[in-house]
Amino acid sequence: MDRLLANLRINIPSSVYIKDPESSDLGKRIIEHSICLIDEIGIEAFTFKKLGDAIGSNESSIYRYFENKHKLLMYLCSWYWGWLEYQVVIGSFSLKDPLAKLECAIEIISREVVEDSNFTFVDEPALNRIMINENSKSFLTKQVDLENKEGSFESYKRLVSRIWEMIEAVAPDYKHPKTLASTIVETALYQHFLREHFKNVTDTGAEGPKDFLIDLVKKTLL
Question: In 47, 170, 193, 207, which residue has its Cα 20 to 30 A from 24's Cα atom?
Answer without folding.
Answer: 47
